[in-house]
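Q: A small favour: would you put together sequence and structure tokens for a protein?
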Amino acid sequence: MRTTEGRKRVAFSLAPGPWPPAPVFRAPGPRPLAPAIHRRGSALLAVLWLSAALAAIGFALANTVRSEIDRTSTEVDGLRSYYLATGAIHRAYIELLWSINAVGPRTIPQGSTVIDYVFPSGNARVEFIPEAAKLDVNFTPVQDLFRLAVALGIEPERASEIAAAIDDWRRPATQGSLFDAYYLSLTPSFQARHASIQEIEELLLVKGITPDIFYGTYVPAADGAEGAPPQGPRLVPRGGLADCLSVYGSRDRVDANTASPAVLAAIGLSPFAISALVERRRIAPFTDQQLFAFLQSIGVSNPRLRVEGNSILTLRATARLRLPNGQLSDLKRTVAAQVKYMRAGMDPPIHILRWYDTAWSD
């Protein structure tokens, strides 16, 4: 009985009933699966953004370094080209001196307007521009100044004002002039010299003369015009007053081999005569006898032309470096020097009057 009752009690105690649920004890472990995936996705995005940022910084740095290398390389090539052009000028004026004093054949033929030098590091072209190819700015008549300005593409009304302003600047005036009020109204104000022009750059102060008119510029070329490219931008160079006037220029006759078409127009040559003269001198420079015969053949009488004619000239050198593949670089550097040859027996025989570290050339 005891055994049976005891068994019944045990069975009764294990039977289901309204007993409170037993507490569930769980061992410590990882969090649920969904929050873990979310954390790993955020970390991946952060790594991707950081990688993109580092890549952008690296690309910008590489681009900057490359740009600096290219800029430095260009500056080095420009400096090398400068010294190449400088050396060509020194060689040219020495060879020209030898040619003038030589008893035998000239190193540089008479009437030459250009000479090409081939150096191990590159090529240089030197242009000879006698001051006799330009007009004397202090003595050129007003009507010649007007024709010169019109030939340079300036409107006739403005050309007339510029010619009058140049004449006023170089002419003495005890009681002032009509242009003085204009110069005094500028900021800063100044007074006209009313004396001979000492440096050709003084023309930049004269009323109506802008840098484009003084130095020259590029203008659109008409269809079929000389120098106009068959395709692409149609721009051709147009000279300025600096190419046509000089304080050392000619008072009467200009050099036929190097005078610009605008100067030829200023001294009274017709467009036909100018075109024929420019075309002929491209073949070979004139000598005195050839020039006289040519002018007679085109019907030009009493010309204000000559060959060379004074001891001052400008040498303008344009240099291009030679690349490792043997071709010439597209980078050009042009320098110029205004040289005066002294009389025989004087020491030194050559004087450099002006030096231009940067010059303009076609």
Observations:
- The longest strand covers residues 312-321.
- The chain has nine helices and eleven strands.
